[in-house]
UniProtKB/TrEMBL annotation, chain A:
This is ABC transporter permease. InterPro entries: BP-dependent_transpt_permease, MetI-like, MetI-like_sf, OppC_N. PROSITE patterns: ABC_TM1 (PS50928). The keyword Transmembrane helix applies. Keywords: Cell membrane, Membrane, Transmembrane, Transmembrane helix, Transport. Residues 114-304 form the ABC transmembrane type-1 domain. It comes from Mesobacillus zeae. It is a multi-pass membrane protein. Belongs to the binding-protein-dependent transport system permease family.
UniProtKB/TrEMBL annotation, chain B:
This is ABC transporter ATP-binding protein. It holds the Pfam family oligo_HPY. The keyword Flavoprotein does not apply. The keyword Transit peptide does not apply. The lineage of its organism: Bacteria, Bacillati, Bacillota, Bacilli, Bacillales. InterPro entries: AAA+_ATPase, ABC_Ni/Peptide_Import, ABC_transporter-like_ATP-bd, ABC_transporter-like_CS, Oligopep_ABC_C, P-loop_NTPase. It is found in: Cell membrane.
Automatic annotation (TrEMBL), chain C:
Belongs to the binding-protein-dependent transport system permease family. GO terms for cellular component: plasma membrane. This is ABC transporter permease. PROSITE patterns: ABC_TM1. Keywords: Cell membrane, Membrane, Transmembrane, Transmembrane helix, Transport. It comes from Mesobacillus zeae.
Length: 317, 332, 310
């Protein structure tokens, strides 16, 4: 308020004379960098922590993973153990998630299914990662004709209907877990290869890579400080989003009878088996596998979204 | 010549999660009919925000015009409703932006984009609008305007696109054209052509131009009057000769010394050290005090009042105060 | 435009050829050839098979002959049902599946776009949160789960909609809803993010500076640009919907192609599997092609950049 008043009176006679002597210059005090500098990964982690939905997803995934490991052990019933006296029992203290038409414990089977789903999802993501990084990396690094030819192959493969190929391979090889993972990998790596190639192509020409080289920075340091943060972001995001699509594909195949074969269970096959009895009111048969598959997909999806935001170097503030 | 636009004590701030950024802190500036007024300052000084506020184009929220007024034809633009403001935008006051590569919609033809303003404001038929658009393209120097009208932006070079943007801004014959860094994204040779075009257009249409720029070369070439902006305030205003030949504010002097000049033989380039203040919590006194070589204690405490040096030459600096002058002359 | 279309057609044919070749050799690599005696149910079927597949010829000749018959749209006989050819099954099943698929695609695209645009325009508002919650759930819940849930709620508990089959428009509601939710969610999310990005573009600010109305800015200037990334994924969504029809037709007992396909898988009726696979691929490739053309029509820049990869 006082300041404004002074301005208005225009001549401000009540300013002490001494204020008109020149200031002693204090070098450098004008610029204080107030912000602590964070490494790329610290910064990304902080931003991920700030994303509530992604954190919820992460917590769910942690719980699901733990339960996938210990869940079947918590129950006294074996996954495949039939008990024809206890058919289609609703959830109770003996059978927490009820039983199916052969008297098998749905709780045990649900967590067994969690193992299958998580295993399939992670295995598919890892295989996609390795093939994609090698293929895309070679294409991007070599460039020129090699790149051109390799990209043509991808273009043709891209036109292949993903699940149809998976079905075909499962039909030919006979249903098994290995078949599913193989089938998922046949076309799954394409997306990853495209991303890696794009990244490598871009990075090859980035000025900061060139700049680091001219400063005589060691190659390993260039890779760790410059290439990794810029390349790994999209790759990690792609991997996180591959997992739910692989889990969905496994459930889909099992639902069609091409996945996990009885007496073993996966979420997809449990949902498929529950279909005929849903009309007779045995809701728990569908609810538990359906709920957990949805929860898993949800968790991976929101985590993937969160990572996408957190790892984008352009969004760094 | 009369005033056509009067900005008085304008305050604009933006809410961010770091706090309130006071981007414009009491800007007063007038625009006269038919003149070119240049607003000069380094990036982040609030020069773009000021005139985006005049156009009411700052996103609200997070931005908001906190106080002050913007008079155009006896109307305070800061008080108009969105709908009333829409009738002024493009018709009475036009604005063009820095990068012609992104200022045009890539999926619409150039003709469509030039004529839509006419159709909106003058409820003109498509055909009549096209005719005017062709004339406009001719005016801004685009050859073969009839065919060019049906082409898409990607079929034009950067300089050509800026001409189209100018045609688009002028097609409704506005009284004021606000050009926000119109030449920054262009090659030097094209820059000169575009500045030439502004002069030509001004002669033909009598439009008043506000030229926002950080480039003193552009200013010297195109401006009649100059306002120097620093940290959300206008620190010095004057005619082109005032600013270039007798700059008074240390910041204006600093700006001029940091630009190479061909007419001085062994001139040393003097950069302005330091960075502008953080506008989250702007300093109480003169914002330039921390970087100023002639700063006094008073500069850090109280913002200086406006001193009139001659007709149309104003400066806001404590060095103009009698007491400062006495002390300095006494010491030397 | 024309060279671009011709080039795309070339790639379509190449992809189709890869698929036919792949299916053919995959099927013939199954241990104990699926086309052998013990698989066939009767003499008549066996005779049909031999005739169609030229089983007495060397493999390569068989392959050429198969290519030839596929090109003339003849997919051969079924193993299990002597009286039926694959063509007849496709003829009966395809119209139903096409109806289901198209209704789903239209619903997904229209509702997804509306939801996405509404969310973007009310960014961080209530509509945005509701739309994105719906979208996250839509992406997370597999269609077969949703289908069964819908049957249980709407048909069994409430009894307001028929449980299954494909008899009237009322029968279409549940399967189409179950199938469309996932793609709708994906479109809504993509539309929202792309719309939000477009709204920050300079040309939108230019349009505002011209004094255009918000309606014109959104629907004339923003939407067309925001649609571009959405269009590119419609192709893969069509693929997802198509494979989705397998389970949806199974769940709702809809007599479409998908149901025959699933049956043929369970019965290991290889000629039917081969025939339907090739046919499905053809449908999908045509979809991808149409999407490409749509993209070209939407984005004027594409004509110049026909060499560029997508």
């Amino acid at each position: 308020m006082a300041v404004r008043k002074l301005q208005e009176t225009n001549h401000s006679p009540d300013i002490p004379e001494s204020w008109f002597s020149p200031l002693e210059k204090n070098e450098g005090d004008a610029e204080v960098v107030s912000r602590p500098s964070l490494s790329y990964w610290q910064d990304a982690w902080h931003r991920l922590m700030g994303n509530k939905l992604a954190m919820i997803g992460l917590v769910f995934l942690a719980v699901l993973s733990i339960m996938a490991v210990i869940g079947p052990m918590l129950s006294p019933y074996d996954v495949t153990k039939q008990n024809l006296l206890n058919q289609n029992m609703p959830p109770s203290s003996a059978h927490w998630f009820g039983t199916d038409e052969l008297g098998r414990d749905v709780f045990s089977r649900t967590w067994y299914g969690a193992r299958i789903s998580l295993f399939v999802g992670i295995a598919a993501a890892l295989i996609d990662f390795f093939i994609g990084v090698v293929y895309g990396g070679v294409a991007g690094y070599k460039g020129g004709r090699t790149d051109h030819a390799m990209m043509r192959v991808i273009e043709v493969l891209y036109g292949l209907p993903y699940l149809l190929v998976v079905i075909l391979i499962s039909v030919v090889m006979g249903p098994s877990l290995a078949t599913i993972i193989l089938a998922l990998s046949v076309t799954g790596w394409i997306g990853m290869a495209r991303i890696v190639r794009g990244q490598v192509l871009q990075l090859k020409n980035y000025e900061f890579v060139l700049a680091s080289k001219t400063f005589g920075t060691k190659t390993r340091r260039i890779i760790r400080k410059n290439l990794l943060p810029n390349t790994m972001g999209p790759i990690i995001v792609q991997m996180t989003l591959t997992v739910p699509s692989a889990i969905f594909a496994e459930a889909f195949l099992s639902f069609l009878g091409l996945g996990i074969q009885p007496p073993f269970a996966s979420w997809g096959s449990m949902a498929s088996d529950a279909l005929p009895v849903i009309l007779s009111g045995h809701w728990w048969r569908l609810f538990f596998p359906a709920f957990f598959i949805s929860l898993t997909m949800f968790s991976f999806n929101v985590l993937g979204d969160g990572l996408q935001d957190a790892l984008d170097p352009k969004l760094r503030r | 010549m009369g005033k056509i636009l009067e900005v008085q004590n304008l305050h604009v701030s933006f809410k961010t999660f770091g706090g309130n950024v006071q981007a414009v802190r009491g800007v007063s500036v007038d625009l006269y009919k038919g003149e070119t007024l240049a607003i000069v300052g380094e990036s982040g000084c609030g020069k773009s925000v000021t005139f985006q506020s005049v156009m009411r184009l700052i996103p609200e929220p997070p931005g908001s015009i906190d106080s002050g007024s913007i008079f155009y034809k006896n109307k305070d633009l800061s008080k108009l409703s969105d709908k009333q403001m829409r009738k002024i935008r493009g018709k009475d006051i036009s604005m063009i932006f820095q990068d012609p590569m992104t200022a045009l919609n890539p999926t619409l033809t150039v003709g469509d984009q030039i004529t839509e303003g006419l159709i909106e404001h003058n409820s003109m038929s498509k055909r009549a609008a096209c005719k005017l658009a062709v004339n406009m393209l001719e005016l801004v120097g685009i050859p073969d305007p009839d065919t060019r009208l049906n082409q898409y932006p990607h079929q034009f070079s950067g300089g050509m696109r800026q001409r189209i943007v100018i045609a688009m801004a002028l097609v409704c014959q506005p009284e004021i054209l606000i050009a926000d860094e119109p030449t920054t994204a262009l090659d030097v040779t094209i820059q000169a052509q575009i500045l030439e075009l502004f002069k030509e257009v001004q002669e033909k249409t009598g439009v008043s131009i506000i030229l926002i720029t950080h480039d003193l070369g552009v200013v010297a070439q195109a401006a009649d009057r100059i306002a120097v902006m620093y940290a959300g305030k206008i620190v010095e205003t004057g005619g082109r000769r005032d600013i270039f030949y007798s700059p008074q504010h240390p910041y204006t002097k600093g700006l001029l010394h940091s630009v190479p000049r061909l007419d001085l033989d062994d001139q040393e380039l003097v950069p302005i050290h330091g960075t502008p203040p953080d506008l989250f919590s702007p300093p109480l006194g003169c914002p330039f005090a921390a970087r100023c070589n002639e700063a006094m204690e008073v500069c850090t405490k109280i913002y200086p009042y406006r001193t009139q040096l001659s007709d149309g030459h104003h400066v806001e600096c404590w060095l103009q105060d009698e007491r400062a002058k006495q002390l300095q002359s006494g010491r030397v | 435009m024309l060279p671009y279309i011709l080039k795309r057609i070339g790639w379509m044919l190449a992809t189709l050829w890869v698929i036919i070749t792949l299916t053919f050799f995959l099927m013939h690599s199954i241990p104990g050839s699926p086309f052998n005696e013990e698989r066939a149910t009767s003499e008549a079927v066996q005779k049909n098979l031999e005739e169609y597949y030229h089983l007495d010829e060397p493999l390569f000749i068989q392959y050429v002959m198969y290519l030839k018959s596929v090109v003339t749209f003849d997919f051969g006989p079924s193993i299990k049902k002597s009286s039926q050819s694959v063509n007849e099954m496709l003829g009966r099943g395809f119209p139903v599946s096409f109806e289901l698929g198209m209704a789903t695609l239209v619903l997904a695209v229209v509702s997804g776009l509306l939801l996405g645009v509404a969310a973007a325009l009310r960014h961080n508002g209530l509509i945005d949160y509701i739309a994105m919650t719906v979208a996250v759930i839509g992406i997370s819940v597999p269609n077969f789960v949703l289908a069964t849930f819908l049957i249980q709620q709407m048909s069994v508990n409430l009894g307001i909609l028929p449980v299954a089959t494909w008899a009237s428009p009322r029968h279409m509601i549940l399967p189409v809803a179950a199938l469309a939710t996932g793609p709708m969610a994906i479109i809504a999310r993509l539309t929202r993010s792309s719309m939000l990005e477009v709204l920050t573009q300079d040309y939108i600010r230019t349009a505002k500076a011209k004094g255009l109305s918000p309606f014109k800015i959104v629907f004339k200037h923003a939407l067309k640009n925001a649609l571009l990334p959405v269009v590119t994924i419609v192709g893969s969504l069509a693929a997802a919907i198509l494979t989705g029809t397998f389970v949806i037709e199974k769940i709702f007992a809809i007599p479409g192609m998908g149901k025959y396909f699933v049956e043929s898988i369970n019965q290991r009726d290889y000629p039917v599997i081969m025939g339907t696979t090739v046919f499905y691929s053809l449908v999908l490739i045509i979809m991808l092609f149409l999407v490409d053309i749509a993209y070209g029509l939407l984005d004027p820049r594409i004509k110049l950049h026909q060499k560029g990869e997508r």
